[in-house]
Amino acid sequence: MTFVLVHGAWCGGWWMSRLASALRHRGADVFAPTLTGLGERAHLASPEVGLSTHIQDVLGVLEYEDLRDVVLVGHSYGGAVVTGVADRARDRIQRLIYMDAFVLKDGQSLEDVCPLGMAGFFVELARQSGEGWRAPSPFTMEQFGVDLPEDIAWNERGMVMHPLKAFVEPLTLRPEPLPFPVTYIRFTERSMRLFDQFSAMRRRKGGTITKCRWTHAAPAVLLVDVAGRRSLAS
Known about the structure:
Layout: E1 2-6, H1 17-25, E2 29-31, H2 51-64, E3 70-76, H3 78-88, E4 93-101, H4 110-113, H5 118-129, E5 134-135, H6 141-144, H7 149-156, E6 162-163, H8 165-168, E7 182-187, H9 196-204, E8 208-212, H10 218-221, H11 224-227, H12 230-233
């Protein structure tokens, strides 16, 4: 089985490394690309980097690694990315999994589905700290559900500012439904409430909903025996 894991905002492919190790331990092939402008690719950040850039990042991995029958996984902001990837690479995907993630419809951007005022808050953060085009994370590691000092330090050392365009650029999708199963994994422990609407939407559409008593940061802090559970890999 082949997994492609797409991380959320402010971090990088490194953030998925513990989950990737768990899946490899169970015999899977795993790719965890870093999106442009983040992680070890932070030097490529610019005002032009947006959601479409990040979709192309993952499409490039699928194409150049010639990946087929992929389980495509998006966490948090990565849910917006994998939605676009799944739409454009339908012949390469076996299953789409959202992990506590944003799900956009055609024509929507992140600012359309975030709570009222959050987009303006990001714009103000970018104005104050990010030269007007990138924003630092307004969340603490504890809000993400990271409590152990060593885990907090491991996460904080790799966090960078996120290109603002990624939050405001709308997604364009084809009208035809996806031809493969879609699963939404909802993390219920100390829920951030940002993602309730998306699991409810998936339930209305008849998709599979899995609830796990994990925090939002689960992919970055889970141990091998937990992260490799069949609820994710099956």
